[in-house]
Amino acid sequence: MERNIVRYGELRPCKTAFIDAHTPGSDQKENFTIIGGGVSESPDQHVHIADKIGFNIGAAGQPPKCRNSLHSHRTAEVFFVLKGRWRFFWGRWGDAGEVTLEEGDIINIPTGIFRGFENIGTDYGMIMAVLGGDDAGGGVLWAPQVIEDARDHGLVLAETGRLYDTKKGEALPEGVKPMPTLTEAELAAYPEPTTAEVVPNYVARYWDLMALADHQPAKVIGADAILRDRPGFEVEFLTRGSVDGSHTNEAPEVLMPMRGHWRLSWDGGESVLNPGDTCNVPVGLTHSLTPAMSGEASLYRVRRTEDAPGATMPLS
Q1: Where is the Cupin type-2 domain (predicted)?
Q2: Is 112 left (phi over 0), alpha (psi -120 to 50) or beta?
Q3: Residue 257, C-beta contacts closer than 8 angstroms, at least 6 positions apart
Q4: Domains of the chain with CATH codes
Q5: Residues 156-214: pLDDT tens digits?
């Protein structure tokens, strides 16, 4: 089981994961690939658990005032705030709408819109991510200005999806072209939803989930959940009053504690999961999950479903 648990204190960051790694304002961010291949464009990215389970788990760590540049996904992208205070914004230029998320809040960002995020807190912040499908890296598109700014600071993204750093003397291989930017016609097809259109349908607040999960796990993302969607996985929120008894999971399942310490027990062993830890529960394992200590306890549980290929429902 230990190979299936990634401890928060053992996470290995990559500081060159994306095209904006040299761009001022985005050059201090850290990317983490915890389960699956992730979305990194750099060969330096460390993958903690390479298992393909139908969705990816990752994280982003950023100091105050650091932002992730505008990009779009063809597959689902879900974040919950583990540490800090974060602003999520979207639109062609990032000014169509925005929302501020506090610790424990979760956002299921619609596919097919440009989005970015920044740490607006006073300390280093961390957001945990769930990405749809096994090939989440194949669905990232950057806003044209991001590609242009990166080129000005020495980073070129190839059409193959790999980054080349001209400051290190790297160059595109012969026969490989730069990643083309989207045309104005293609950009015109991207929606510009307002804050009022996105927040009620794609954001759930931590303290609302705490109240809803008092007696049973709160269904956060899923066909019959608070955020009704079918991205190829479902998300539940557990608290002290909503834990399950011993059960066997028939599909891939990931446990991500938000608050408190959780005791995971199985036939032949047990382990305590802490905030920021990630546990990939093997299919077929009979296990139970209970808070290990008194006080506030909360946890996000992600399970694969078979009802969609991994794309979040776009705005209509």
Answers
A1: 64-127
A2: left
A3: 273, 274, 275, 276, 277, 298, 299, 300
A4: 2-203 (2.60.120.10), 205-304 (2.60.120.10)
A5: 999 988 899 999 999 999 999 999 999 999 999 999 999 999 999 999 999 999 999 98
